[in-house]
Design goal:
Structural class: alpha/beta
Order of helices and strands: HEEEHEHEHEHHHEHEHE
Number of helices: 9
Helix content: 25-40%
Largest sheet: 9 strands, mixed
Strand order of the largest sheet: 8-7-6-5-3-4-2-1-9
Strand content: 15-25%
Shape: globular
């Protein structure tokens, strides 16, 4: 009996050990993102940041004539930033746009982590203000996050670094998603990147719009509902019936909701509200010519 018990314990520890070692690849599957094949929108610029650690980050910016507001885009963990930028440019036509490849996602350098993505997001916000000549007292900045990107957008909104957020298939926390999927493991102890969007937005007076997929198997709707329950100012909460985590993007209804969501968030924040959130020092700006990187 004792050898059998020991064998079971060893197998359990091995399984938990594999999860611990593999968690970064599971959360940030960098090899699944492929270089975009479509041309960038006309007028796009390639922009770069260099972090205080010396990592070069590559992104894209699009100036819109007469636009006053800025939309920062934060893509899913297996979605190429170029494709996200192109997709979003077709749907958010009234604002300046900016999107970056996450740290560690080619051609950006370094290693992805929750802390790195959040740090880089603040630097991108500051870059957007400079690049689009956007004083803090003029216009507004919004974050649009998709999937894992909702964790970044939620944190920016909760910290007051942006004036509102649109969250597509969001979670209350990566920790909660992982607990439901790996119920047998001590997730709270092992997980390095918890992305607690619920804590970031709980009770905060910031406009947030949420779009969910009814048949989402990657981020179960229950996890999105749990986040919605924490919102201090939800301006739109919609569920697309019959849609999964990926198939959502193929539905015309989603396109309509995405446009409405940003409008609702924009209308909820009075224009000209002064906002000053100090950025992180040590980021260098480099601008180049539009390109796919």
């Amino acid at each position: 009996m004792l050898p059998w018990v020991i064998t079971v314990i060893m197998m359990y520890l091995a399984a938990v050990g594999v999860l611990y070692v593999a968690q970064d690849k599971l959360l940030f599957p960098r090899t699944l993102t492929h270089r975009g094949h479509l041309p960038l929108p006309s007028g796009s610029e390639r922009v770069e940041l260099v972090s205080s650690e010396g990592h070069r980050l590559v992104g894209y910016a699009l100036r819109r004539p007469q636009a006053k507001d800025i939309v920062l885009l934060f893509t899913g963990n297996a979605w190429n930033a170029e494709d996200c930028f192109i997709y979003s440019a077709e749907r958010f036509r009234g604002a300046h746009l900016m999107a970056f490849h996450y740290r560690g996602y080619t051609p950006s350098e370094g290693t992805p982590s929750e802390a790195a993505l959040l740090e880089d997001a603040v630097a991108q916000r500051d870059l957007a203000r400079r690049l689009f000549n956007h004083p803090a007292e003029q216009g507004r900045i919004y974050a649009v996050g998709y999937s894992i990107g909702t964790g970044v957008a939620a944190r920016l909104a909760g910290d007051g670094a942006v004036d509102g957020a649109v969250l597509v298939t969001p979670f209350d926390s990566v920790e909660a998603v992982a607990k439901s999927r790996y119920f047998f493991a001590p997730v709270s102890v092992l997980l390095k990147n918890k992305f607690r969007s619920d804590r970031a937005l709980s009770g905060k007076d910031v406009p947030v719009a949420v779009i969910m997929a009814a048949l989402d198997r990657v981020i179960p709707k229950a996890r999105s509902d749990a986040l919605v329950a924490q919102l201090g100012r939800p301006v739109l909460v919609e569920t697309v019936q019959g849609a999964g985590h990926v198939s959502l993007y193929d539905l015309p209804l989603f396109d309509e909701l995405l446009a409405v969501a940003l409008v609702k968030v924009m209308e909820s924040r009075p224009p000209g509200v002064p906002r000053h959130v100090p950025g992180r020092a040590g980021m260098l700006l480099e601008e180049g010519v539009a390109g796919s990187g």
